[in-house]
Amino acid sequence: MTFTAAQIAEQLRGSVVGDGSVEITGFAPADLAKPGDLTFAEKESYFAAAAASAASAILVSGEFPGAKKVLIRVPNPRVAAARLLPLFFPPDTHAPGVHATATVAASAQVDPTAHIGPGCVIGARAKIGARTVLMGGNHIGRDCQIGADGCLFPNVVIYAQCRVGNRVSIHAGTVIGADGYGYVFDEGRHRKMLQVGNVVIHDDVEIGANAAIDRAALGSTVIGAGTKIDNLVHVAHNVVMGKHCLVMGQVGFAGSTQLGDYCVIASQSGIAGHLKLGVQATVGAKSGVMRDVPDKGVVLGIPAAPDKQTKRQWIAQQQLPDMIHRLRELEKQVAELQARAGGNQV
Description:
The chain is an alpha/beta fold. The chain folds into 3 domains: 3-88, MurE/MurF, N-terminal domain (Udp-n-acetylmuramoylalanyl-d-glutamate--2,6- Diaminopimelate Ligase, Chain: A, domain 1); 156-303, UDP N-Acetylglucosamine Acyltransferase, domain 1 (3 Solenoid), CATH 2.160.10.10; 314-346. The protein has 4 helices and 40 strands. It starts with a strand and ends with a helix.
């Protein structure tokens, strides 16, 4: 697909510096750009590489005097790039219809515009919304509801009674609604506590590959609208996430923890159960959160503490070898002084 620089600027509500009629046929990073490509530079250190590249135009913010290429000036080049990429790399299209190898219960409701791929199983009374795509090998349990314009990549499994909103993407191998980890000790053995709740995923959520979001023991495990969950994340029963949270890879949440809106949880962190993380709380990578985090709180470390406190502790730990060396030197000096004092007394 071909656009002029002026058309792209209009799409982004930006402005063109140079020839607006230059044709743009692709989008690429500076080191891979070729004639006809658009690239972007977030700051001056990147602009030199973009200016030296073969790209025909550059997305920028701010002033770059003396530029020889066409510039498209926007408030934020990275945001502009995110908006443009679907124009140059449109998603795959999937024809409406049900594949011959799919199994659909007679009581299920599949919108005629939906795409049901090979090997899918759709249980009794399940509902699949308009233009939603099940790529293949998906199992949708009884009484599930999946909204419009969603996409389930291969081998996603959704257990019975779960609800998925509109425009939700769930990547390959993820399981929604498996039993939460609930047992009670009874007469010398661990008795299973039935998990009879469900999972509710609101609109515009994206969940990465091989994640597991467990059904609630009672009630619902909830993923708020606009939340983005990375690969290999485990969300235990009755966790409730607010809107627009970001959860990076390999994070684990224990049961019944609550996250406010706009929380950020960095990779390989573990969050203990029954905690409350406030609005815009941030958890640094590899942290072990054992206490509540207030609104806009930033915690780090194991156990997690306010980030400035943790960083001071890390700096102090790095100084320990030198401190131990100095302490030994002081002990040696004290011993020598004591020996001299004892000799003088004799």
